[in-house]
Amino acid sequence: MLKKLTLVLTSLLIINTISFGQVRDIYMPLSAGSIKLNGYLENNIQNSIAHWNKGVVPYAALVEKFRTGRSFFAQGEMWGKAVRSGCMFYRYTQDPELKKILDATVADLLSTQRANGSISCSEIDKQPDGPGGDLWERKYVLLALNQYYTNVNKDPKVLQSMIDQANCIISQVGDPPKTRITDLGWSPNHIESSTLLEPIMQLYTLTGNQNYLDFAKYIIKEGGAKGYNIIEDACNNIVPEKIGGVYPKAYEMMSLFEGLVEYYRVTGDEHIKTAVLNLYHNIINNEITLIGNGGGDQPYHPAVMGEAWDNTALEQTNPDIKRMMETCVGVTWIKLCSQILRLTGDPSTIDMIEKYTYNGLLGAMKPEGDGFSYVNLLNGVKTNKEGWGGIVDDVYVTCCNLNGPMGLAYLPYVAIMNSESGPIINLYNQGEAKVQISKKLYVDLKIETDYPLSGNITVKVTPDNPNDFTLKLRIPEWSKNTVLKVNGDPIKVVPGSYAEINRKWSKGDRIELNLDMRCKIVEAPHGSNRKGDNFVALIRGPVVLARDENIDQNYTQPVSIISKDGYVDVLPESPNSKSTRMQFRVPTTKGFIHMVDYSSVDSWAGKNICTWLPYE
Questions:
Q1: What pLDDT does 15 receive?
Q2: pLDDT of 267-305, one tens digit each?
C-alpha cells in the first residue's frame, strides 16, 4: 500500500509540472463555489439536491451490488450516476452535509475493490462481462470517482483506485488474445462499451500515463461500435439516425463523443475535431425538437424504445410516436454542448443548453424534485417514468432519474465562465459570481432579472479596481430585437453571437440588456407521417408554450391563432396552479385560450399536454 501511495504522490507531482494537452479551451468554468444562482433555476437545483441527492438515493444499497452482483443488467451504473451529479452539486454549493454523504459512499465503494483492482458487479472469473454491462458500469464508477477526486476531495486513495481499475481493464480488453472492446456489451452493436474513452482520457490528464493514451487510441481504432466506425461516419457527415446501423443509440453515441473531445484536447488531432463538430451540427439540424431534446421510436427505430436518433427534428409531430426524447439523451446533450462551448466558444452551444433546460429538462422533473421522467412527449401524457431500471431498497431508480440531476448540476458550471480576455455571461438567471481576471484582479458580477418571465436584465460590474478587460454577453439567436446599453450608452449586437464589451471597467458600471421576448408562432416540420394534420407551436423567448389539460379541457381542439408577421400578442395572467411558472392568454379567432410554459405541465397523474397545436 505504501508503494501505491508513493506512486500516487509522484503522479500528483507530475500534474503540477507537466501539461499533457495540446489544445487549450477558449472558455473555462469558474472555480468551485464562485457562482450563486437565485430564483428560477436555483429553485429546481435546490429541490433536486434536497429531495434526490440528499433525499432518497439509496447509496449503500447501490454499493452493495458491487459485492453481491447485479440483479439486472448494467445496474452498477446507478451508483456512479448518483455520485457524479452529487459531486457536481457540491462543486457549486460547497454543502458540508452533501460532502459527508459523498465521503461516506465513496469510502464504502472503495471497500468493494476486488483483488485484480476492479470495482465491478462481475466476479473476477467472469470478467470482462459483456451481456451484464460490466464495462459500462466500470465507466460510471471511474467517472464518479474522477468527479469526487476533482471537485470534492483529492484523496490519494481515490486516485490510486482509479489507476488500479484502469490497469485492470487494460489487462483484460484490447487486441487479441484480449477481448475486443466492441465484443463487449448488451446492445446489438456494443456502442456503450467504447464510451469508456471519456474516463480513460480523464485519467490520462491526471497522471500522464502513456498506457492510458495508448488504450484511448485503441478504442478509437476500433471505431466505437461492432461492425461500424461511427467516428468515420461522423467525419463523413452521415446523419445521426444512420450512424451505427440498426442501433444509433443517442445517449451512448454522444457519451463516446465527449471522450473524443477529451482526446482532441490532448492530441490536437483535427480529424477527431471534425467528427465531433459534424455530429454536433447534424444533431441540431436533424434531431433537436421544439423543447431541445431528440430521439424517438418512429418511424425508423421502434425497437429502441424512443432512445435512438430517429430524424426527430422532422418527425416530432408524427402521431405514431409513443416514446421520445430520453432524459439521459438531453442531459448528455448538455454535457456535449458544454464541452464544445469550452473548446470553441460557439454561442450556439448555449442556445442549445438553454433551449433544453427551460423546456425539456425542467419539464421532465417531478414537482417534488425526487426524480425525472424517462422520456417526454410533446402531445399526450408528457411524462413517463417507465424504462430501464428497477427497485433498489424500496426506491424506483432509473437511469434517467439518476441522470436528470446532472443536467441541473451543469447549469452553474456554464452560466458564467472565464477566458483569457475576461468573463462570459451565458445564462441570464439571476445570480452573482466572482471572476478572477488576473492574479491581482477580481470582478464581481451581479445579475438582476426575473428572466425568463421577462427579458429585462441588469448586470452590475464591480472590479477590485478600475481595469481594462473584455466582458462577453451571449445574444441568443432567437432575440431578433435586442437592446444593449453600458452606463446608458447603446451597443450594437448581432443575434446568435457574443456582444464583446472591451473597456476600462470601474465600480458602479451597469449593463442593461433587453431581450426580445415576443411570442413567435412556428409551423411544424413535415415528416413522414402527418396523416393530413397541420400543427403550429408558440415560443416566447426560450420558453415553449403548451395547452394543459389540468386547466383546459379543450386542450386538443383545433385553433386559429391570431398573429402578425410571425408574432403573437400573448398576455401574461395569474397562473391557475401554484406549480405553474408562467401562464398566458393567447388570442384566437374564437376568443382567448390559456397556455402555460411546457415545463410546468404536471402529467404525473396522467393529464395530457398539447404543445403542437392542431389549427383550423
A1: 38
A2: 999 999 999 999 999 999 999 999 999 999 999 999 999
Assess whether 2 and 129 both reside in one domain: yes
For CA atoms 116, 119, 122, 127, give the dihedral sign. Answer: negative
Proportion of the chain above pLDDT 70, given as a percent: 96
Percentages of the chain per state (helix, strand, coil), in multiples of 5: 40, 20, 40
- 451 three-class SS: coil
CATH number for the domain that contains residue 476: 2.60.40
Q: Cell 474516463 belongs to which residue?
A: 199
Beta bridge partners, 436, equal 442
Q: How far is 28 from 440, CA to CA, in rounded Å? A: 18
3-class DSSP assignment, residue 510: strand
Q: Which amino acid is at 519?
A: C
Residues 487 and 591 reside in one and the same domain: no
Amino acid 530: pLDDT: 58
Q: DSSP state, 26?
A: S
On the question of pLDDT at 17 being above 80, the answer is: no
How many domains would you assign to the chain?
3
* The dihedral formed by the CA atoms of 158, 215, 79 and 386, expressed in degrees to the nearest 10: 170
Last residue of a domain, one of 157, 172, 187: 172
Domain boundary among 172, 199, 232: 172
Q: Does the pLDDT value for residue 386 go beyond 50?
A: yes
Single-letter amino acid code for the residue at 532: G
Hey, how many other C-beta atoms are within 10 angstroms of the C-beta on 18?
Answer: 8
CB neighbourhood size of 602 (10 A): 17
Mean pLDDT of 304-326: 95
| SS3 call for 330 | helix
Question: What would the 3-class secondary structure string for 110-134 be?
Answer: HCCCCCCCCCCCCCHHHCCCCCCCH
In a domain, 418, yes or no: no
Task: Give which of 463, 410, 458, 411 is closest to 430, Cα–Cα.
Answer: 458
- C-alpha–C-alpha distance, residues 289 and 311, integer Å: 10
Q: Distance from CA of residue 572 to its chain's centroid?
A: 30
Confidence check: pLDDT of 187 > 60: yes
Does residue 8 have a pLDDT over 50?
no
How large is the average pLDDT for residues 585-599? 98
Domain containing 154 equals 1-7+37-172
- Beta 509-514 vs 567-568: how paired, if at all? unpaired
Q: Is residue 63 part of a domain?
A: yes
Residue 21, pLDDT score: 79
* 408 domain-assigned: no
Per-residue pLDDT averaged across 199-214, rounded?
98
Same domain, 610 and 486: no
Q: For residues 437 and 542, state if they share a domain.
A: no
DSSP letter for 146, please.
H
- Could you write out the three-class secondary structure of 469-500? EEEEEEECCCCCCCEEEECCEEECCCCCEEEE
**By the 8 A CB rule, do 198 and 139 touch?**
yes
Per-residue model confidence as pLDDT tens digits over 338-355: 999 999 999 999 999 999
Distances (CA, A) of 458 to 212, 425, 428, 486: 47, 12, 9, 10
Q: Global pTM?
A: 0.96
